[in-house]
Amino acid sequence: MGFTEDFKRLVKEAAQTRFKNDTNLARSAGVAQSAVSMLNSNKRTGLQLETVGKLMDAIGAKIVLPDDTPKIPDVDGKNLTVLPVYAVAGAGPAWDDEESEPKFFIAVPMQYITKNISLLLVSGESMSPTILDNAVVGVNRDNAEVVQGDIYAVRLPYEGIVVKRLYLDHAKKCFILRSDNKNGNFPDIEISFEEGDTFIYGRVEWALQSYRKISF
Fold it and tell me: What is the pLDDT of residues 119-168, one digit of tens each?
């Protein structure tokens, strides 16, 4: 599709879902309702650039220019792609170290990649031997449904992100965060259901215990 077709599709989807109708979208964007209606009726339009810009802002659309695309190096090997590692997750004390700039890049097998995967650097020994200190984990941020005993990255209130096994205790009405390392002092952490309503960052899908950092 070209820009015009993509733009019309995005406006129509936004009007039907998030904004419920053309009137609400037009009001939010600060444009005439007729502009939205014409786009959604597939009629040819001669919208001013300012109107297009207001509608794009309202629906959260963005034009990505060639220079906006991150430059990443080629990696030797088959079926590999390069992804950024952005944040530190504690396997021990909680960390909160998310950054707008990646810490480094690593080469990851293509089969490890899903639509909304985030890579976190693990710091600490509490999940050893399952996940070692300085491992990189792939966190699926679209998968926050709790499966008893699976490993998740969770954001502790006022502290930061940790990687733990997650359990539900319905009797106590709380989440239990549990470490795999039985040789250290890593007590369970309990978070009430009320506090933990939105604290799940995502499910840990895989861990790379060793890897090669890509620099360029």
Answer: 888 888 899 889 988 889 998 888 767 888 899 998 887 677 889 999 98
Q: What angle do CA 166, 119, 63 make, to 5 degrees?
A: 125
Please tell me the pTM assigned to this model. 0.59
Nearest to 4 by CA among 50, 46, 58: 46
| CATH value of 80-214 in 3.90.180.10, 2.10.109.10, 3.40.605.10, 1.10.10.60 | 2.10.109.10
Per the model's pLDDT, the better-predicted residue between 26 and 96 turns out to be 26
Q: Does domain 3-59 have CATH number 3.30.1460?
A: no
Query: At 94, which amino acid appears?
Result: A
Q: Give me Rg for the CA atoms of the chain.
A: 22
Q: Which of 86, 163, 158, 155 is nearest to 122 (CA)?
A: 163
Sheet architecture: strand order including 213-214 = 80-85, 104-109, 213-214
